[in-house]
Design goal:
Structural class: mainly alpha
Number of strands: 0
Radius of gyration: 20 Å
Distance between the termini: 57 Å
Shape: extended
């Protein structure tokens, strides 16, 4: 599910073109740099050639399982909702608050599309300003 979600975004957030188009959009380059560094690290750590891939997901989870003591580890999927998370953290389940779903594929896909639109508009505005400045010379 994770891999299909990543690949289902339709836009590679680490690609040269995405980074160029979205250069002026706050947070996009730093997010892309973080994802690229994470993928590069896992290529080295797990001997992977082409992340993201199913092996990366499996190897990462196994690495965390070996690193974190069992009593301090919660294997959690958002579909589980509040109960196991709150129980693990020894907190009360929020009453009347739905479990947040902000990290779903559509939310991320729309966010990336919005970044591309904002990036195109930023470049267009820059060119208009430059054209105006050059015409004033």
């Amino acid at each position: 599910m994770w891999l299909s979600s990543i690949k289902g975004l339709g836009i590679d957030g680490t690609s040269f073109w995405f980074r160029l188009i979205c250069f002026w959009v706050p947070g996009v380059i730093s997010s892309a740099n973080m994802i690229r560094a994470w993928l590069d690290l896992y290529c080295v750590r797990f001997g992977l050639v082409q992340p993201p891939c199913e092996e990366m997901y499996t190897e990462h989870n196994n690495w965390v399982r070996n690193l974190v003591p069992q009593k301090s580890l919660l294997e959690f999927e958002p579909s589980m909702g509040w109960e196991p998370l709150c129980q693990f953290l020894d907190k009360k389940v929020p009453v009347g608050k739905p479990f947040p779903r902000r990290n779903d594929r559509n939310y991320l896909k729309n966010g990336m599309r919005a970044a591309v639109i904002a990036g195109v508009l930023s470049w267009a505005a820059l060119f208009v300003v430059l054209k105006y400045c050059i015409s004033m010379l």
